[in-house]
Amino acid sequence: MHQAIVNLCGGHAPLCLDFDQDHTIHDLKQRIHTITQVDMGHQSISTLGGRILTDDDLMFNQQEETAIFNMSLRLLGGKGGFGSMLRAQGGRMNAQKTTNFEACRDLQGRRIRTVNEAKK
User: Fold this and answer.
1) CATH of domain 2-73
2) Helix (H, G, I), strand (E, B) or coil at 64
3) Does an H or E element contain 45, and which?
4) Which residue ranges does the record assign to the SDE2-like domain (predicted)?
5) Are 27 and 33 in contact, with CB atoms under 8 Å apart?
């Protein structure tokens, strides 16, 4: 018997499950489904190195007695984030050039506003 340790998402305690040598990731997903009621289609199993495994992949190498996996959930994406908004705006943000530099500082660290007021 070999052990599979599965780190679940959402801060739940890891599962420690016993399997035979020839079991696949599909078998692991079935076992996780019976324990957590998370649908197999929503489960994404990956190695500790981050490689996402398919259902046909074997759980254990010839040398391994224990394998550690991460389970994450597959979620639908949204309409896009901040990058999508920036693309939609195009060059409009750069079109408004700054003309008031009074809040900036000169090389000595003084505000341009105070330097201009001192000149007057």
Assistant:
1) 3.10.20.90
2) coil
3) strand 43-47
4) 77-120
5) no
CB 5 within 8 Å of CB 67: yes
Residue 74, helix vs strand vs coil: coil
Please give the pLDDT value at position 91.
67
Rounded to 5°, the CA angle 87-92-94 comes to 105
Taking residues 52-56, what's their average pLDDT? 93
> pLDDT by residue (tens digit) across 11-35?
889 999 999 888 999 999 999 999 9
Domain residue extents for the chain:
2-73, 82-119
d(CA 69, CA 51): 10
How many other C-beta atoms lie within 10 A of the C-beta of residue 30?
A: 15
Q: What is the average per-residue pLDDT within 71-84?
A: 80
Contact 73, 38 (CB under 8 A): yes
The pLDDT of residue 94 is 66
45 burial (CB, 10 Å; 0-12 / 13-18 / 19+) is buried
Q: DSSP label at 21? A: T
* Angle, alpha carbons 112-117-120 (nearest 5°): 130
